[in-house]
Amino acid sequence: MRITPDGEVTIYANPAPLLLSRQAVFPGVVQLPGGELMAMFSIGQAFDAADMRAVVSRSTDGGQTWSPPQALHEGAELASESFKPVVLPDGRVLATGYVFLRPDMETPIVDGGTMETLPLRNRLSVSEDRGQSWSMPADFSVEGAPLELSGPAIVLPSGRILAAAAPFHLRPSGHEGWIIASDDNGGSWRKLSVFYRSDGGQIAPWECRLCHMGDGRVAVIFWAYDLARQVNLDNHIGISNDGGESFDQVLPTGIMGQASNIMALDHDRLLSIHCHRDAPVSLTVRALRLTGDGIAVELETAIFGAQDQGRATDGIVNQFASLRFGQPALLRLDVDRVLATCWKVEDCQHVIKGYHLRIGPEG
After folding, report:
1. What's the confidence (pLDDT) of residue 201?
2. How far is it, in rounded angstroms, from Cα 340 to Cα 301?
């Protein structure tokens, strides 16, 4: 197998950076029935701004060009929000995510002294017309937990919707990763299982991403961060053989990445994408094979290297404050075409990038 870069596009960049600050982050892209692509991301004055709002952009030419973004809603609440879309079997589009409620424009999300965060609420919105218009985002709760629902949900062949998230806090223990489920197209949610909890609960499973591998097999990849020691660990992948109701294995990948994502290639293989923020810095795609008791890396291709992307610094607050790219994703457009996306800092602007990849046999 080989992975070949096949072109780079900018999904969104501030068209008037000398006049206005428009920083774009946290993209999610889906392919609608008929082939049109829809990207959802957030735009605000700064990375953690209190006016960070979700927007939608569209492509009718396979992701080569994108429409100007349109607001998901017209609410005036002071909050920073992030949503990711998933296409439901009936053609509707469901967006799930979270907001941090902001008391003013200058209070940060995380108190650097106490490590406490502002209130987080999980929310969802639904489009009945292929993403042209959306319901006003509404709160939903799973056992009252503030979930870092930063990735998209997935839909199983049964119609059940799954999402993966960690109850979000920055204390040195009490961390675990949840699978939540909806059996009524997102109307109500419940905790289905715990996919990861370390001994002592000091390792946070952040930036969780799911994929369905067929035959009831579900995989979840996450950024493992040890809050007690304040160090990044390698990405881990949890494997379920019963549709996410239990997890038989959680395997270290040996890949020292942070935010990451996966896409199923077949029953035993995954295409993965990883943000490497410690040297050597890169955004890298890999083909992984599940061997039964471990994970083998079959090949890897760097989309971009260090350039000016900086490196992670010690301590999680400093790492969050120095991020230069993140939230990568993979979307299969065709049998041999994949669109990789992420947010990235270019020319002092946070922009949304797309990278076209060709996948095929060696030779």
Report:
1. 96
2. 12
Residue 285 contacts residue 357 (beta carbons within 8 Å):
yes
Residue with tokens 């810095």: 281
**What is the helix (H) or strand (E) element at residue 182, kind and residue range?**
strand 177-182
Question: Which regions of the chain are under pLDDT 50?
Answer: 308-309
Helix (H) or strand (E) holding 316: helix 316-321
Looking up tokens 């109307």 gives 187
Task: Give the Cα separation of 187 and 204 in Å (integer).
Answer: 28
- pLDDT tens digits along 145-175: 999 999 999 999 999 999 999 999 999 999 9
Q: Are strands 120-127 and 138-139 parallel, antiparallel or unpaired?
A: antiparallel
Here the tokens at position 154 are 């997935």
What is the C-alpha to C-alpha distance for residues 166 and 96, in angstroms, rounded to an integer? Answer: 14
Q: What is the CATH number of domain 2-360?
A: 2.120.10.10
Domain ranges (residues) in the chain: 2-360
Question: Measured between alpha carbons, how far is 45 from 135 in angstroms, rounded to an integer?
Answer: 24
**pLDDT for the residue numbered 360:** 86
pLDDT of residue 293: 86
Residue 319 — φ and ψ, nearest 5°? -65, -45
From CA 68, how far away is CA 65, in angstroms rounded? 10
pLDDT recorded at residue 313: 52
Single-letter code of the amino acid located at 350: H
CB-facing half-sphere around the CA of 175: CA atoms within 13 A: 24
How far is 185 from 188, CA to CA, in rounded Å? 8
Listed in sequence order, the residues at least 6 apart from 19 whose beta carbon sits closer than 8 Å to its beta carbon are none
82 CB burial (10 A radius; 0-12, 13-18, 19+): buried
Cβ neighbours of 213 (radius 10 Å): 21
DSSP 24-83: EEEEEEEE-TTS-EEEEEEEESSTT-TT-EEEEEEESSTTSS-PPPEES-----SEEEEE
* SS3 (DSSP) at 319: helix
The pLDDT of residue 308 is 45
